[in-house]
Amino acid sequence: MENVTFHDHKPDTLSLYDAVVQGLSQQQKSIPPKFFYDKRGSELFDQICQQPEYYLPTVERLMLEQNAAEIADLAGRGRVLIEPGAGSASKVRLLLDALQPSAFVPMDISFEYLKSSATALAEEYPWLSIQAACVDYTHSLPVPEEVPIGPRLLFFPGSSLGNFNKLEACEFLRLVRSTVGRGGMLLIGIDTKKNHGLLNAAYNDAAGLTAEFNLNLLYRVQNELKADLNPDNFAQKPSTIMRRAGLRCI
Known about the structure:
- By secondary structure, the chain is of the alpha/beta class.
- It folds into 2 domains: 53-188, Vaccinia Virus protein VP39 (Rossmann fold, 3-Layer(aba) Sandwich), CATH 3.40.50; 194-250, no CATH class.
- 41% of the residues lie in helices and 14% in strands.
- The strands form 2 sheets. A 6-stranded parallel β-sheet has the order 1-4-3-2-5-6, sandwiched between helices.
- Helix 5 (111-124) links the parallel strand 3 (103-108) and strand 4.
- Helix 3 runs parallel beside helix 4 (93-99).
- The chain is globular.
- The protein starts with a strand and ends with a strand.
- Residues 240-250 have low confidence and may be disordered.
């Protein structure tokens, strides 16, 4: 497609190996959420977002559909639109016609998935200049030089800020500020507190996709690091209500 260009920054700020060694050496075991999003993980997450129990995407899409024109009036049309963690770019589609951006910069950590989703978007919006960047947006937000000079709007939906701890969230927002620059804007999605039952249903969907999404990380560790483990011996805890559910051996 003539209206899409790819920029592979080969993000390697922390390797999967280092993340596993560091994360599993801690008393409270953890691995950064970004490692869930290889091509398979990204595909699974898109399916999770379509499940009836996962309320957040449905509510957010409705809000964007109803308020796209007002958002465009407030932000102004013709801005450079930047979306870290763009994934399939399903939500930004609800804003493109209203915002009429001078360029769109989708960012994702999985180059294969980024290429697939940006190519599809370019076919649907032949008027849109797309500069797709493969980056680890938790550490950098490099905007390609080909992007036109002008005011910027960074779009960060999905309550993804909740994946960071307080320090990481502050650092990311500072990074956003420096990226959008003077006169720049941020359109961000933040969820409110929810009751235990609603969260448990959302992150333990009946189709089992969230469990498969979490277990996919173990398959990555097994395949990419040749780790001596059997992912079939693990299962998601039914009581887990966190966005990145825990695992237990069975």
